[in-house]
Specification:
This protein is of the alpha/beta class. It is built from six helices and eight strands; from the N terminus they run ββαββαβαβαβααβ. The protein has a single domain, classed as 3-Layer(aba) Sandwich (Rossmann fold), CATH 3.40.50. Helix content is 31%, strand content 20%. Strands 1-3-4-2-5-6-7-8 form an eight-stranded mixed β-sheet, with helices on both faces. Helix 3 links the parallel strand 5 (106-114) and strand 6. Residues 53-57 and 196-215 have low confidence and may be disordered.
Length: 215
């Protein structure tokens, strides 16, 4: 995917603040500090466009990034950070739920999971919610550079088992450090927004070498 333009557009908290140009939207969900902003920066080949922070819970809005004038990435607030107040967590939850339930432009949610750990209770709840409402989902297992290659299959299996993952959902192994999985993830995104999520046999060829895990 050649990136010709990428820009931060708005931090939204209400539907009346969402962009109105009807471009397809790809949302990124995951626990605090899982690396959503780093993933965005690697996907668009920019170092600091998406706001990264060592302080969990910093993202408190839906951050919109417009890519190539053809798609938005939306960085969600991270969940599961204990130091965020109950009131803030409830407000974030309502904001995200309203967006996911009502936003027609939403075409795909990337559920970001750290390969080093089993999915958390919050990860499982998010996945269950997405499946219940039949929202297209891609599981992105990130930080693959942090563990030996010999452990990849074991950890991917742990993710699948813990989430009770739907075998129809694509799982992509990813690293924001090395760029592993970037091309496969862009391919899946463009296929989803261009072909309404249909899959071809070629999309899963050489899956193990490419970083895409499929049943």
């Amino acid at each position: 995917m050649k990136i010709t333009s990428a820009e931060f557009v708005i931090s939204a908290v209400r539907p009346d603040q969402y962009p109105i140009d009807a471009l397809p939207e790809i949302a990124l969900a995951g626990r605090s500090n899982v690396g959503k902003s780093s993933l965005i920066n690697r996907m668009i080949n920019r170092k600091n466009l998406a706001r990264t922070s060592s302080q969990p819970g910093k993202t408190q809005q839906l951050n919109y990034y417009r890519i190539n004038e053809q798609v938005y990435f939306i960085d969600f607030p991270g969940y599961g950070y204990a130091k965020v107040s109950k009131t803030e967590r409830e407000a974030w939850g309502k904001m995200i739920e309203r967006y996911l339930r009502d936003r027609d432009e939403l075409k795909l949610v990337l559920l970001i999971i750290d390969i080093r750990h089993a999915p958390s209770k919050d990860d499982c709840l998010m996945y269950e919610w997405l499946k219940h409402f039949e929202i297209p989902t891609c599981i992105v297992v990130t930080k693959s550079d942090k563990i030996p290659k010999s452990q990849w299959d074991k950890q991917i299996k742990l993710v699948k088992t813990t989430l009770q993952a739907d075998p129809r959902d694509t799982i992509i192994r990813y690293s924001s450090e090395t760029g592993e999985g970037r091309d496969q993830l862009w391919g899946h995104i463009m296929q989803t927004i261009g072909e309404r999520g249909s899959k071809t046999d070629d999309s899963h060829s050489n899956a193990e070498d490419a970083g895409t895990i499929a049943e």
